[in-house]
């Protein structure tokens, strides 16, 4: 008997959930490559258990960083993340720091500590951010300024002070080099993926990546932005919970050609590539990791190819 459309959709969603579960747990079976061996990294916005910062910190450790600093303004989950990294990867030194990624003194302090501890800084992943969902009519100047401060100032400080540290040489690092990666969003590429204040802030992050890359020319320090699409994280949890309550979870993410939403580990893959020497000629880019959402103008799914 032929399956009904609803049965086909349910089966497809079950397959998607199985695929996403494998992606989330890929580090359990993936060999360590040593792509980041010997490097010192700072990651901000590591507090969410389902977040991009945490997933990236774990992948950095899996790929062999020498020392990783995991940071967040909230201390609730940092000790557990440090313990997880230390247990899984005893060769990786992990330091957890409670800090405000948009505070100049806090950012400088972490970077100074990395230099004092290791004599070098190689990777800075500026991931801390907030998201809002209010329409412009319900957004005031204070909302705009707060979003800009957290999302843009944090990235500016990373570019300014991490690049200075990456230029410092030592016996273990004979030449200037490094990789700065910032979390932007497809909302910063074009409208339709976020509120006005959030989208504007992420467009600014993309501009920071492009401008900083040129400001740092001839230093061998690269600056790039990663632009996630709809990713299941603590930040987007209300969207997913609402869909599940309505029984429409299978439709989440259907507006991209991959026909699903993403998970934090998939952004971590892209960030790890940008952080590694494999991306040595990738500079000043805004890399969409969105299932193909940004590849097209709006279309009716399944009606126009």
From TrEMBL:
- Please give the superkingdom of this protein's source: Eukaryota
| Pfam families in the record | adh_short_C2 (PF13561)
Q: Which molecular function term from Gene Ontology is one that the record holds?
A: oxidoreductase activity
Q: Which UniProt keywords apply?
A: NADP, Oxidoreductase
PANTHER family with a match to the protein in the record: 3-OXOACYL-(ACYL-CARRIER-PROTEIN) REDUCTASE (AFU_ORTHOLOGUE AFUA_6G11210) (PTHR43180), SHORT-CHAIN DEHYDROGENASE_REDUCTASE FAMILY PROTEIN (PTHR43180:SF66)
Which protein family is named in the record? Belongs to the short-chain dehydrogenases/reductases (SDR) family.
* Name this polypeptide is given: Levodione reductase
